[in-house]
Amino acid sequence: MLLESLGAGTGVYGAFQSYAARGLVLGRVAFAHRDRYRLITELEELEAEPSGALWFRSPDASAMPVVGDWVAARVVGPGQALVEAVLPRRTFFSRRAAGKREQEQALAANIDLVFLVCALDGDFSLRRLERYLTLAAESGASPVVVLNKADLCADPAGRIRQTAAVARDAPVLATSTLGGASMERLRDFLAPGRTVALLGSSGVGKSSIANALLGEECQATAEVRAEDGKGRHTTTHRQLLAVPGGGALIDTPGLRELQLWAGAESVDETFDEIAAAGAACRFRNCSHCGEPGCAVREALDEGMISADRWQSYQKLRSEAQWHERLTEPLRAHEYKRWVKSVHKAQRKARKK
Length: 352
Ligand code: GDP
Ligand code: ZN
Prior knowledge:
Order of helices and strands: HHEEEHEEEEEHEHEHEHHEEEEHHHHH
CATH class of the largest domain: Alpha Beta
Strand order of the largest sheet: 10-9-8-11-15-14
Bound molecules: guanosine-5'-diphosphate, zinc ion
C-alpha cells in the first residue's frame, strides 16, 4: 500500500518480479549520500549500501542508486540492507559532475512532475526558466512553472502572461507561501502514485513550499543520520518524502543548482518556434548564420522570433552540442574520417 502510494505500479512490480523470487525486497531511495542510502520499503525503513555485485556491474557512477530510484535490496541485519540492483528508470535528472572531466552525475530518478520554482522578486529571469524547461524536457518529467513570492510583485498577472509565452504547454501558477489559496492549487498537482520534485535556485521558497504541502510535522520527522566527509555523524533532511494524501515529494540539494546536461533535441523542444522555422531552411544542416535561404534569419528579421529567445537558444544549443560531442561515441562516418586523417598523417610522416 505504502509503496503503491509512492508510485510502485505494474512497471515497477514487473521489473522487481525476478528479484522477489530471490528473496529480495522492493524499496525506494529516500536519501542518498555517497554510497549510503535510506530505503523506504513496505514494512520498514532500511539503511543500505551497494552490494559488491552492484558496484561490479555498474558501467559508471550514474548507474548507482539516486533519490527516487526503485531498488531490489537484500536485508542483511536489523534495519540493514545491501542494494543489489537498480530497477529501470522512467525519468532521470542529471548534471555535469564537478571537476575537469565531463561526467554525467545522476541526481534523481522517476519524477513525474517537476515544479520549476522561480521567485517574483528582483531576481526573476525568463532566461533561467528556459534553462529549467530544457532540463525538464531532457529528464522526461512534465514541468509546472511556479512563480512564488507573488506577494512581492505588483503585477503577477503580467508576469504569468510573459512566462506563459516561454512555458508553452506547461501550466503557470503564481503562488505565495505566506497565505491565500495558492498552496491549495499547488496541492492539486499531487496525487497518490505521483512523484513531484522541486527545482529552482536557492532562496526562491522551495523549503517553504515543501512545508506547506507536507505539513510541518512531516518535515520535523524527516531527519536522517548520515556521515559527513570526515566520517562524523550529522543529521540531514530526507530528500524524498511521502505526501500525507498519497504521492511523493522530492527536494534534494542536487536539484537546486543545476548546470545544463541536455541534448540539442531538448533545447529544440523548449524553443519550438525556432526549431519549427529551421525546418523550412534551404539546407538541412543550416547553422542559421548567414546561409542562403535561411528561414530562421527571415523569421528573426520579421520579428517572428525575438532576439532574446534567439540568444538564449544559441547559448543553450552550443552548450548541449558540446556535451553531446564529449559523451557520444563516434558515429560511423566520423570514425571513418578519423581513420582517414590518421592514415594521411602517417603517409606524410613516412614521406619525411
Ligand atoms: P529555498 O532555498 O528555495 O528552500 O527557499 P526557502 O523556502 O528557504 O525561502 C527563502 C526565503 O524566502 C525565506 O526567508 C522564506 O521565508 C521566504 N519566502 C518563501 N516563500 C515566500 C513567499 O511566497 N513570499 C515571500 N515574501 N517570502 C517567501
Ligand atoms: Zn537556417
